[in-house]
Specification:
alpha+beta
Length: 153
């Protein structure tokens, strides 16, 4: 038999239809096995040149004192952090479109950042502080528009 007459072995592979149909459930089950859910009502940020670490925890009160119990830390690269910010803001926008504005209690207003020092007055840090001040003003103005009794501080 010449080479031209020999049958060519099949290299195609047929994936069972049941397997394909069940992939979503297989992945969901595996995800449930390797992840756990936690609640957080407070977060703290640690940063360095390489990455951002977000610490999650719960604030509680005991004997008139407030404290936070930290339980989870997530570290991500700066590009991932920026994408995370985009997707977080996107999900907040979608939530608010469906449910109305999220009300921030007065007691949770972020503290005003310090003014830039003389050395920082013409630097990128001054620009960053101005952005932070602008975002803080947006939160306060939004709260005031939702609740006329809200203070402007």
């Amino acid at each position: 038999m010449s080479d031209q007459e020999k049958p060519v072995p099949s290299t195609s592979f047929q994936v069972p239809v049941d397997f394909v149909n069940n992939l979503g459930e297989i992945f969901a089950r595996k995800l449930r096995e390797v992840t756990h859910s936690v609640y957080s009502n407070t977060a703290n940020f640690e940063l360095n040149e390489a990455d951002l670490k977000i610490l999650f925890g719960q604030t509680y009160q005991s004997s008139g004192k407030t404290a936070s119990e930290w339980h989870t830390a997530v570290t991500m690269s700066w590009p991932q952090a920026k994408l995370f910010c985009f997707f977080l803001r996107s999900n907040i926008a979608i939530y608010e479109a469906n449910n109305g504005a999220i009300r921030i209690p007065r007691g949770l207003t972020p503290a005003e950042p310090p003014s830039p020092s003389e050395n920082e007055a013409d630097t990128a840090m001054a620009e960053a502080l101005n952005k932070i001040l602008s975002w803080r003003r947006e939160l306060i103005e939004e709260r005031a528009s939702l609740d006329p009794r809200a203070s402007s501080t």
